[in-house]
Amino acid sequence: MNTEHTFRVEPLDATFGAVVTGLKLSQLDDPTFTHLYETWLEFALLVFPDQHLSNDEQVAFAKRFGDLEFDLAPISNVQPDGTVRRDDNSDDVVKVLKGNMGWHCDSTYMPVQAKGAVFTAHIVPSTAGETGWADMRAGFDALDEETRRQVGELSAYHSLYYSQAKLGHVPKEGSEYKGYGFNNQDPPLRPLVKIHPETGRRSLTIGRHAYGIPGMDADESEQLLQRLVDVACQPPRIYHHTWTPGDAVVWDNRCLLHQACPWDMSEPRIMYHARIAGDPVTEFAAHA
User: Fold this and answer.
1) What is the enclosing helix (H) or strand (E) of 132?
2) pTM of structure
């Protein structure tokens, strides 16, 4: 391989994920990106230290993976005027930040599930505030044969409105989070077992947005879905990243769950999220 197109890949101590060094994400030529994309499909999560991407550079990098579901969203407890949002159960943004602390996939509650995401750290708290990921390919493989057979025949509905309501959060009129995700009141029905459109590997489609398995009562459905999360989201199938300003990551939303971790919300935390749109053929799920 031409050395100008190589970079260093250090696998994480998990069933997935790698730290990638020796390149600048803002200066990738096409052959290097092709190699990087293949590496991403293999590891599902790539961590890039010391990138310090501008917002425009983050969006440009994310677009190399495909069309974007949205260009850039702040994942932050800091308001536009620079003050920290109050953690007193009055702020819908804080309620969504706390909801994201449950294991989930992005946009499973929309008709087209996201392909992936690029995430960057700008300001991080002095301690905690990690982001975790969990490998749903290895999670599926870890199930016993009878459970694999059972879940292979089942589907679940997905709803952000449902998952936030479980936490007592119904957005106030005029809330910043009144629209996206909450406006989809016809929840899509997704199989519990997904076949990755590019690798062919099976993985679980579960997490906090999933509920209401047809053919089961609500309690039975909830118990099964929680058991799947409990089994899948265990070492060596999980990794929690401690952020340093300048870090960037890209993950494959088609086979990983992720979660935010708590921190002292009197401290600011500013991250930016660019969401890569899913293929409308392979990631579409209709309400049924």
Assistant:
1) strand 131-135
2) 0.93
